[in-house]
Amino acid sequence: MNSKQVGDETEAAALRTLISNGYNVSIPFGDNDAYDLVVDNGDRLLRVQCKTAWQNKSETIRFNTHSQTTRDGEYHEITYVDSVDAFLVRYPETGTLYWIGVDEATSQKMELRFSADIDHPAINWAEEYEFDGSIPSE
């Protein structure tokens, strides 16, 4: 599959999970918005960017927290700060979804760790971000 197909699968999985857990979800028209979905959590509308994670090391997965585009032959990277409220990340190997608030995400790329020999405040534990179908309160 090409990267567009992989992204479509991630969006479809996110959409299915959100709807099956009772959320109203809207899809922006076109591909020009920074967010892929708009989720109504009952209190407000949340702009959600769907991302696909890949295995970085045996104990970590990683996903991009920026968009990459080429415009007029020049490469551009743009972060999602002020453009989205959260990332909904799918790891295709397990089908697991992770909900990460944009304020919790690191810049450029973010790693989620499954295990480590030490516990350090800088470690982003995957289990803490697992999406159980309920959007975390802020």
Query: Which residue ranges are poorly predicted, with pLDDT under 50 across at least 5 consecutive positions?
Result: none
CA-CA gap between termini: 36 Å
DSSP E strands, number = 10
Structural Rg: 15 Å
Q: If you had to describe this structure to a student in words, what would you say it looks like?
A:
This protein has 138 residues and is α+β, with helices and mostly antiparallel strands. 16% of the residues lie in helices and 38% in strands. It contains 2 helices and 10 strands; from the N terminus they run αββββββββββα. It has helices spanning 3-20, 126-129, and strands at 24-26, 37-40, 45-52, 54-57, 60-64, 66-71, 74-79, 86-91, 96-101, 109-113. The strands form 3 sheets. A 5-stranded mixed sheet has the order 1-2-3-8-9. Strands 4-5-10 form a 3-stranded antiparallel sheet. The protein has a two-stranded antiparallel sheet with strand order 6-7. A hairpin with a 4-residue loop joins strand 8 (86-91) and strand 9 (96-101). The longest helix has 18 residues, at 3-20.
